[in-house]
């Protein structure tokens, strides 16, 4: 079946079968490999994307369900070669670790900060609860979210170059 959707601001049309997962469409057909497959059960958050302004585990979404959807992957967050403030914050705090889970955490952070611009540590933990990092602890990730909130506030006040 033919579906159409917008991904990272670009309208696309694809032919998919009824069992194709959104994750496979994104990675294999569109070659957007920043979205990772971890557990394949929607438990780890490595395949997180933002679809219609909601965080989804793309391994649990069938591709045909994306018909008419607006999707953002990690590739859609930066502006060409300019990193998004959230990406900058993850790098500056050393929250990237092995990097496998990082795209999912960054998209979950974006969604959290879109809803709660200055979250408490408890709100951060809840906001990122769908994502698992197997490398180490979560303190650097929490620090990255706090720094992201600061950076985005600076951008909005015009203290930094405009961003998304």
Automatic annotation (TrEMBL):
Residues 1-77 form the 2Fe-2S ferredoxin-type domain. The keyword Iron-sulfur applies. CDD domains: fer2 (cd00207). The keyword Cell cycle does not apply. GO terms for molecular function: 2 iron, 2 sulfur cluster binding; metal ion binding; oxidoreductase activity. Keywords: 2Fe-2S, Iron, Iron-sulfur, Metal-binding, Oxidoreductase. InterPro entries: 2Fe-2S-bd, 2Fe-2S-bd_dom_sf, 2Fe-2S_ferredoxin-like_sf, 2Fe-2S_ferredoxin-type, 2Fe2S_fd_BS, Beta-grasp_dom_sf, Diverse_Oxidoreductases. This is (2Fe-2S)-binding protein. It comes from Petrotoga olearia DSM 13574.
């Amino acid at each position: 079946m033919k579906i159409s959707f917008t991904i990272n601001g670009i309208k696309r049309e694809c032919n998919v079968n009824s069992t194709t997962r959104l994750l496979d469409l994104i990675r294999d057909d569109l070659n957007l490999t920043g979205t990772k497959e971890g557990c394949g059960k929607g438990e780890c958050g490595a395949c997180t994307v933002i679809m219609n302004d909601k965080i989804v585990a793309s391994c649990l979404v069938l591709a045909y369900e994306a018909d008419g959807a607006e999707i953002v992957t990690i590739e859609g967050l930066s502006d060409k070669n300019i990193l998004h403030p959230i990406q900058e914050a993850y790098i500056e705090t050393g929250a990237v670790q092995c990097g496998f889970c990082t795209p999912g955490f960054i998209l979950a952070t974006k969604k959290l900060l879109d809803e709660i611009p200055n979250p408490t540590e408890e709100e951060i933990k809840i906001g990122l609860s769908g994502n698992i990092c197997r490398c180490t602890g979560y303190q650097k990730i929490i620090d990255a979210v706090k720094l992201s909130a600061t950076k985005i506030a600076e951008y909005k006040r015009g203290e930094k170059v405009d961003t998304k």
